[in-house]
Give the backbone structure.
Amino acid sequence: MLLLLFSASVATAQQRTYRADPVTVRARRSLRDIGAQKTSLDTAALRENVTNSLADVLSQNSSIFIKSYGRGTLATASFRGTAPSHTQVTWNGLKLNSPMLGMVDFSLIPSYLIDDAALYHGASSVGVTGGGLGLAVTLGTRPAQEEGFGLKFVQGISSFGTYDEFLRFTWGNRKWQSSTRFYYVTSQNDFKYTNYRKKVYEKDENGLVTGFHYPEERNRNGDYRDLHLVQDLFYNAGNGNRWGLSVWYLNSRRGIPMLNVDYKTDSRSRNRQDEQTLRAVATWDRISESLKLGAKAGYTYTDMGYRYWGDPGGDEPLVEMIRSRSFVNTVYGEFGADYYLGKKWLFTAKVTADQHFVQSSDRTVTNSSGGLANVGYDEARFELSGFVGVKYRPAERLGVGIDLREELWGSHVTPLIPAAFADFLISRKGNVLLKASAARNYRYPTLNDLYFMPGGNDTLRTERGWTYDAGIEFTLGDPRLENRRVGFRGEVTAYNSWIDDWIAWLPTFKGFWSPVNVRKVHAYGLEVKGRFAADMGRGWRVALDGNFAITHSVNHGDSQSWADESIGKQLVYIPVYSAAVTGTLSWRSWTLLYKWNYYSERYTTSSNETATRLGVLAPYLMNDVSLEKHFSFPWASLSVKAVVNNLFDEEYESVLSRPMAGRNYGLFIGLSPRWGRK
């Protein structure tokens, strides 16, 4: 994970933002957030590193476990022991979850392109969207709120032939705001690592084995290139009407690294994934003193291809063995209203519709006559979601609420999805707040679950689950240091959930995998978050942000055979313990940042086998450090940042047989001219 320096325009004011935490003092808590378990990511955390994807930000600033296949490859989220498809993600209201796969690749979301990010835990996700059995993540862009012209440029040079460029051009006046963001990264990604999955045997002159050593290898076929272009245009009519248009174009080409157990040479195997995605959302909001109306219309187009070239044997050139291609077109619409009745009541209603058209095919499958067959599916599905919510604060200390959601997919309708919330201010001194929530939620199968060839199962049932959580939070002083010189904020949450009819892909006797409703998963645990900040005077400031999680996710489903040993065991790749701490020490225009992560062991088999090194991935610690200096000139602001990632050269794997990079370095320069800005 590479770190970057801020764009130069984030000088003094942004340094303060960097140390700020998006804390809402609960003495002024809003009706909308009654009882909600919500984590808002600070804007500075999103801007901390231009090379950071959202996966990097989430792993450091939340209790989400990111399952990463390596630099520049797939990164999915697991929250509270759930599957990646149980995390629902929206961007400006538009759902990012693939209708084919049901999940989101967070490595393809650069954090520098996001202005607002919030996590809605458990029951709180019902107010955002259905299907969030673990979590809902809302991402958004907003007006730059600048007068005149603005320019920010960041150039990064890092280990493994990695180059990052970010450019943002803004323009605005009282009514119009425009923002154009360009991000481009290329990397050879050919880092060295010691391969502990292979042995090189040493022999004497008689051919007898005298010992062995582990070879040093390079990450092969791991190069990548990503291009992102985001255009935002906002218009404020001044009479309560606001209009917006956001467009996001992605063009990505990524090699898929070879496993460290692969003995093929680079010249005898190659695979690649290409993706082009266009997302567009138009918005309208009308805001008055007690009523807010909003409408959105959006469109998503995705062209994704995967190609694999293999060795046919002998001296023959590589042969294309897999050539799959998928096209997704989605049309989206939404209308919602918020109505405040005095200061005690909030009524919310929203209707969301998505129409998906999906074509998926593999054109290199050999048919019975020896020719090439086109295997896949061509399906369309309509999804409709209706939501109503009521929040009520009968007294200053007490708040209660209920959310109801109903969803339709194809010709199926989910049962009613209810969620209940409550919070109680125990003490004004310290803003000690007790929160609780509960919900019943559902997630319907993806198109691949139903129609993938071979293996799709159109008899799958909807996953269903109950989730409960309760927690306490407090605030002492001001963690943002806006009014006081010392502040501390803490939060502890316990949760418990059951998910029935969990969909899992399992091998069949026919030689391929197929999804079935097999699992009953019990997930329970504890989440702890805290922040401390202090202004020590004479320009010195210190801040600490941390989170800790205990996550038990146990399979209590039916045995698939007499030899099934997965019952009562932790789900694969879910660490029981995880923690992260970010420390910041600043003096005037200097900032020293230290980041620390910890993950306990993760099992790679459903039976939690530990007899071999392949059955369990060892726990690991990750340490990153950076030093940044800001310069201010009459004509521009400039910043320089030096970074060391994986400071102690930790050797680890996040996914079995996928090596991760050792110690690596980065240098980043940011520039922001002062011309044209009022």
